Amino acid sequence: MEKPIPRIGSRSKSKRIGLRNKKSTRIPKIPKGVIHVQASFNNTIVTVTDIRGKVVSWSSAGTCFKGARKGTPFAAQTAAEKAIRTVVDRGMQRAEVMIKGPGLGRDASLRAIRRSGILLSFVRDVTPMPHNGCRPPKKRRL
């Protein structure tokens, strides 16, 4: 007698299609991360990453406020609280803070981060400083 040929690609009754795996829906815990604050005169952007640099959460003053209020310290504080709230829920306890830029939101965002309950290992200012930078334009003659 000949053996029956097994059908490839047929649906078996034991497997159900469309159900998600429990492991894929579980949110991974992030014990330590890096908080980047970019404070310009017009806006403040707060980005929270893990140690490898993968973005976990972000917020900006522009998503919270519109117009001239984006550049205010209160807008920066609101943006920092919004970015950190999701990360604290995922279990972040320690963080490093990198602050860049000359804007008004520097101090306010740092104050909001400290108030969130995350332990800060260090706060670093990473504002780019030119080492005598670009050549200035030639003098104007009238």
Automatic annotation (TrEMBL):
One of its GO terms (molecular function) is structural constituent of ribosome. Belongs to the universal ribosomal protein uS11 family. This is Small ribosomal subunit protein uS11c. The keyword Acetylation does not apply. Keywords: Chloroplast, Plastid, Ribonucleoprotein, Ribosomal protein, RNA-binding, rRNA-binding. SUPFAM superfamilies: Translational machinery components. Its main location: plastid. Transmembrane segments: none annotated. GO terms for biological process: translation. InterPro entries: Ribosomal_uS11, Ribosomal_uS11_bac-type, Ribosomal_uS11_CS, Ribosomal_uS11_sf. Pfam families: Ribosomal_S11. GO terms for cellular component: chloroplast; ribonucleoprotein complex; ribosome. Part of the 30S ribosomal subunit. PANTHER family: 40S RIBOSOMAL PROTEIN S14/30S RIBOSOMAL PROTEIN S11. It is found in: Plastid, Chloroplast.
